[in-house]
Amino acid sequence: MKTLLALMLVGISFVSQAAERNDIPSCYSFAKMDEHRPADSGRELVVIIDQTVKVPLGLKKSVWNQVLRYTQPGDHVILYQFSALLQDNYMKREFDGKLEMPFTDQKVRNSLGMDSLKSLDGCLQQQQQFFAQTIGKRMAASFAGQGDNIAKSEILDSLKRIGDDLKDDPAPGKTLLLVSDMLENSDFGSFYSNNQIRLLAADKEMARVTKQHLLADFGGARVYVAGAGLIDSEAKNNYRSGKIMQQLEIFWRDYFSASQATVVSFGAPELTVDIK
C-alpha cells in the first residue's frame, strides 16, 4: 500500500475512462476490481474561491475543515478559482475528483480473494488521506497571496461561467461553497462608491444584472457563502455597517434564487453552520 500512496502523492491517476477527468486515483482500478465499483453517492460539492480577496489564515482553515467534514465516500468534489481576467489570473477548474464508495456486497465479497479485498480496503483508507492533503494544497494555492493586489473582481461574470461549466456535471444533490467578499467591482458595475462600500438597493441591482444577462443556472444547488464583506486590514475606509451587510445579503439571496439556487447560509465573514 505504500506504493499506492506514493503514486497518489505524485498525482498519477488511475481512471476507468480515459476521457473522464478524475484527480483522485481509483482504488478499484488499483485492485483490478473495476467491475465491482459501486455507484456514486450522487452528491457534488463545488468549492469556488475568489482570488481577488485576501482571506485570513483562520478563515482558510475553517473553509478547509468545512470541506473535510462534509465530504463522504462516493462524493464528487470540484474546486474553481476565479479572478479578474489578467495574464496569470483567470477562472480555472483547479480540482475535479471523485471519492469511491466502499465495497459492501457481502455475498460478492465472500467470492473474491482476500488479497484483492485487503488491497482495496487499505487503498480506500489512503484515498481519503490523499483527498484531504490534495484538496488542502489546491485550495491554499487558489487564495490570494500577500503580495497580490487585484483591483477588479468579476464575481457575477465568473459565477455565470461556472454555472455554464457545471451543466456538464449533473448531480442530484449539488452544494456550492463560495469563498468571496461578494463585492463586485467590474465594468458590469461596482458595489463601491468613493472608495467605500455603497448601500445597495437589491431590486435595482437585480434589474441591472438581469438586463446584462449575468444570471446563472445552478440547477437547484444549495449555496453557502464564506467571507462576505471581508475587510482587508490594509485598506482604508474598511468599515462595513450592519445595514450595508444586510442589503448585500438580500441582493445575493435574490441573485441565487433567480439563478436556480438557494442560499442556506451567508457567512459575513465566518460560516456559523456546517455545510450539509
TrEMBL record:
Keywords from the named record: Signal
Annotated signal sequence range: 1-18
Superkingdom, natural source: Bacteria
Record flagged with keyword Signal: yes
Protein name in UniProt: Lipoprotein
Source species of the chain: Winslowiella iniecta
